[in-house]
Amino acid sequence: MTARARLVSVLSILLAGALGILSSTQTWVHVSLVGVASSDLEVAGADAVSVLAPLSLAVLALGLALSIVGVWLRYVFAVLSLAAGVVLVWLTVTVLTGPPLSAIAPDVTDATGITGDSAVTALVASSTVTAWPWLAVVGFVVLLAGGGFALVTANRWRRGGRRYEAASVRAARALDGGPLDAVDSWDDLSRGSDPTRTRPLD
Fold first, then answer.
1. Rounded-to-integer distance, Cα 69 and Cα 160, Å
2. pLDDT tens, position by position, 50-68
3. Do 41 and 30 meet the contact criterion of CB atoms below 8 Å apart?
4. What is the 3-state secondary structure (H, E, C) of 120-176?
5. Domains in the chain, start-ordered, CATH in brackets?
6. Are 130 and 29 in contact (CB under 8 A)?
């Protein structure tokens, strides 16, 4: 169960981050303009939500780090994942409920050269949201679930790096001339060493 909890949490966070990065390159809003030659615009996710790509990259990094860190950092990274999820859900929902002017104004200005909120608003005849913000918000809800699950189960995850810690202990014993147990002897044998050979005295 503990291994499964780690896997579910990490995969959920990684999936959300990957979906956020993918959706940032896709069209989120179709905008129709009046009185200009280029009457139709496609607003990408990265333009509609300026922090979408960097936050999604941060979420990916958190997911990768969460799989290897100790228990205290698990809590820290789980909280950061939840915070990123809240921000991303909130900003995506604002696009879904009616794209704010800030989400489409930069693209309108790039296409027409016209600036100013009132002037840009007068140019916009209509705006239509695509399916990508809906997919993104589902992914960010998964991010919230993964971060919350990590926060609840982090203290029960198996410690990472145990194999390397055991190897360090065996190396320290060998240097100190201390006794090797059966596991140590078996590991020596698998590496081609003879564990029964008498060690040289200092």
1. 7
2. 999 999 999 999 999 998 9
3. yes
4. HHHHEEEEEECCHHHHHHHHHHHHHHHHHHHHHHHHHCCCCCHHHHHHHHHHHHHHH
5. 2-156 (1.20.140), 161-202 (no CATH)
6. yes
The span from the CA of 62 to the CA of 14, in Å, is 8
Task: Give CA–CA dist 124/119, Å, rounded.
Answer: 9
Dihedrals φ, ψ of 195, to 5°? -70, -15
pLDDT value for 120? 87
Three-class SS state of 44: strand
pLDDT at position 122 is 87
Amino acid letter at 92?
T
CA dihedral 36, 104, 52, 90 (to 10 degrees): -160
* Strand blocks (E) in the chain: 27-33, 40-44, 124-129
DSSP bridge partners of 40:
32
